[in-house]
Amino acid sequence: MAAEGSPIPTVVGIDVGGPRKGFDAVALRGTEIRAKCRSTHAAEIAAWCRSQGASVVAVDAPCRWRVPGGPGRQAERELARAGISCFPTPTRERAEGHAFFRWMVCGAELFAALEPAYPLHAGGPVTGPRCFETFPQAVACALAGRIVSAKEKRAVRTALLARAGIAVAGLARIDEIDATLCALAARHFADGTFQAYGDAAGGYLIVPAPAEFPSAGAGRD
Fold first, then answer.
1. Which residues have CB under 8 Å from 82's CB, separation 6+?
2. Please, are residues 31 and 164 in contact by the beta-carbon 8 Å criterion?
3. Where are the beta strands (DSSP E) in the chain?
4. Three-state secondary structure call for residue 91
5. C-alpha distances in angstroms, 175 versus 78, 141, 150, 157?
6. Which of 54, 151, 174, 218 is most exposed, with the fewest beta carbons within 10 Å of its own?
7. In this predicted model, what pLDDT tens digit does every residue of 154-213 receive, in sequence order?
8. CATH number of the domain to which 134 belongs
9. How many domains are contained in the chain?
10. pLDDT value of residue 48
11. Rounded distance, CA 61 to CA 201, Å?
12. Residue 7, helix vs strand vs coil
C-alpha cells in the first residue's frame, strides 16, 4: 500500500491473448501512461515489467485453474452473484486440450514468469511487489458504479479512463485500453482502495473499490 506523501508508484496492466496475439502491457504512474509493450513472449513481458520498476502488475487472465471435480472458482461465483459473468476457468487439462482456452494457458505462463519478482497476491496485508488477476469488464463496472455495456466496450471504457484523468489519445487498440484498465486496477491495489473476489485456494480477482453491481453483465472480454 502506498503511504501518504510517498513517491507515486509505477504499476502495469496486461491484456492477455493467445499465442499469435500475445500480450499488451501498459505502465501507469498516477494518471500518466509511461510506456507500452507488446510481445508474444511471457518472459519478455515480465522482464519489461521489471525494467519499468513496476510495484504491482495486474493481469487479465485466470491466476488459478479449476480443481477437477470441484464447483468452480469462488471468484467467478462471487462475480456472478454480483451480476458480472465471465468464461468459467476450466481445469488445466481441459484448457491445454482445447484451442479456445489457449489464451488462459498463455496467462498461466505469464503468471509463472512474473512470480519470482511479483508473487501472486494471496490475501492478507499487501507488502512488497505483487501481481494479481483482474478483469476489464468488472473494472469498468466498478469505476462506473453500475453495470456497463460490454457490447459498446470501446466507447464506455475509453470514457471511464478519461474520467479517471488518463490521456486516452495514444491508446489505438481495445487491447491497449483493456491493459490500461488493468493498470488502473493495479493503481487502486497499490493505494489500498480495492475489492477482492475469491479465496486463496482458487485465487483472488481484484477490481477498484467500491464494486457494487446491481444487474447482470456480460461475458469476459
1. 197, 211, 212, 213
2. yes
3. 10-16, 23-29, 32-39, 56-60, 130-133, 194-199, 203-208
4. coil
5. 25, 18, 14, 11
6. 151
7. 999 999 999 999 999 999 999 999 999 999 999 999 999 999 999 999 999 999 986 444
8. 3.30.420.10
9. 1
10. 98
11. 16
12. coil
